[in-house]
Amino acid sequence: MTSDAATPPRRSDATRAAILEAARERFAADGYERATIRAIARDAGIDPSMVMRYYGNKEGLFAAASEFDLRLPELGSMPAKHIGAVLVSHFLDRWEGDEVLLAMVRVGVTNEAGAQRLRQMFAEQVVPLAAGVCPVPAEAPRRAALVGSQILGMALARYVLHIPPAVDMTKEEVVAWLAPTVQRYLTAESP
């Protein structure tokens, strides 16, 4: 008997993987509205009916393709004074290194399915991070929303809208400006 590691993936697994890879690239390049099932199927080298078979519709495909782990840093064990800088730096690295995350932001501001996916990612990943470091865990959703306003605001200004002063700042300058605010949102006593 062979081990699972030596067993080749089932054809359906390979097809799903090809569809998701093509969908991520197509959504990143064209956005949600302009990306089509036909184009995604063509990119994956399959018939469009297969996309529908596995994902039902474009919204289902987008939801599957936009499963995204923010790979947030572990903040609970670090000195509180570094939390803002570490988090802002982490997000800048993610925006600059991952077109899929950036595409999700673009889609999130123009499409309800994209917005819902971002809200879900926020609730599942950012709120628990805030709960782990804020002085009153019940305030985590509010504090996480404030952090999101800073992080997403900079992502829109720097990477989507390309506002020159935001684009022209170095990573270190962005961290220096945003980190104290993010730090306060996460660790300061309530106003």
Q: How are the SSEs ordered, and which strands pair?
A:
Blueprint (H helix, E strand, L loop, with lengths): L10 H24 L2 H8 L3 H8 L2 H8 L17 H15 L1 H10 L3 H22 L6 H21 L3 H5 L2 H17 L4
Can you tag this structure with a few keywords?
191 residues; mainly alpha; Arc Repressor Mutant, subunit A; 2 domains; 10 helices; 72% helix
Task: Provide an overview of this structure.
The protein is mainly alpha-helical and 191 residues long. The protein has 2 domains: 9-65, Orthogonal Bundle (Arc Repressor Mutant, subunit A); 80-187, no CATH class. 72% of the residues lie in helices and 0% in strands. It contains 10 helices and no strands. It has helices at 11-34, 37-44, 48-55, 58-65, 83-97, 99-108, 112-133, 140-160, 164-168, 171-187. The model has no long low-confidence stretch (mean pLDDT 87).
Q: What is the count of structural domains?
A: 2
Number of strands: 0
Largest sheet: none
Radius of gyration: 19 Å
Shape: elongated
Q: Show unreliable segments.
A: none
Helical fraction equals over 70%
Secondary structural class: mainly alpha
Strand content: under 5%
Q: Give the distance, in angstroms, between the N- and C-terminal Cα atoms.
A: 64 Å
Number of helices: 10
Average predicted local confidence, pLDDT:
87
Order of helices and strands: HHHHHHHHHH
